[in-house]
Amino acid sequence: MPNPVQSITFQAMNTHIDLMFVAEPTAVAPIERFAVDSFRAAEERFSRFISGSELSQLNRVAGARCLVSEPMIEVLLLTEGYRQITDGAFNPLILQALEHLGYRETFDLVKQRAEYPVQPEEISVVNLAELLIDPSMKSIKLPPQSKLDLGGIVKSWTVDRLASDLRSLFGVQQAFVNAGGDLTAWGGSFTSGDPWVIGIEDPWDTQVDIGILTLTDGAVATSSKLGRQWSTSQGMMHHLIDPVRMLPSHSDVVQCTVIGPNVMDCEVWSKTICIRGFEVGLALFEQNTLGYEALLFTSDRRVHYYGSESSLGQTWHGIPIDQCRFRPAII
């Protein structure tokens, strides 16, 4: 008798976590404990909203060299790699800008405020290259008067680590892990191995899906300027900060979904395209990725696709695409 599909849901990192996997019923409880512990441990280490987290402690001593944990070194080295390939668009040294604009608490609390008073003074731009990392000594030094926000990568990093552990420690051959839109899947769904079906949210009507993705093995991430917004005395703000201006991005891309082999790559590139915009962001994406595809929604309410022509109708379904730019076929 084939093993059934099991389902686990829980809250962590201020988002909803969904885990579906094919396994014996006796495996559900240990996998659930492991998954919850994995997300909670990452949250307790990396959350900027927990005063005792490792991240918060580092932010309090910016300018001094500190010993840090192996996970912190791993994540910071990843951020440096992403900074380079995104031409600086990915920069976690933006926390001062977010706090100045009113994003000081979890978004559930921020969105309850009527309006946040914002002073018009500029926030100093901090170059991520000034973050000094010594992997051999397991130490780092933040630039003076800077603050890290690793929310743009830690969720997808945790998804990636959990997926690896589920395969290696529990022998899970078919699964789907979704952490608030940062999603990875492998082995297909159910006993037939059919692709997992993933809805793509309409950015202008979040109650409906604008189309679907079918995915057997791979990852998906979506970033949007429209979902995480709040009101201030200087107008509406959102959380995707342009590190050149240290203000919310004014680019023409309001939402971007990226699919590919790795969920962290998908997350970083979906944010980069939203921050840099259609032309610059897509050019960076094209130059620095292979095997990744993107669906972009622009402020004029047009839908753009970049990827393989063969994926339309096979991976992307029912989406009203206005413009396609096809990746050259690999010979």
Automatic annotation (TrEMBL):
Keywords from the named record: FAD, Flavoprotein, Magnesium, Metal-binding, Transferase
Enzyme class: transferase
EC number(s) from the headed UniProt entry: 2.7.1.180
InterPro entries: ApbE (IPR024932), ApbE-like_sf (IPR003374)
Superkingdom assignment: Bacteria
MF terms in GO: transferase activity
Catalytic activity: L-threonyl-[protein] + FAD = FMN-L-threonyl-[protein] + AMP + H(+)
Cofactor: Mg(2+)
PANTHER family (UniProt xref): FAD:PROTEIN FMN TRANSFERASE, THIAMINE BIOSYNTHESIS LIPOPROTEIN APBE
Protein's UniProt name: FAD:protein FMN transferase
Gene source species: Cohnella yongneupensis
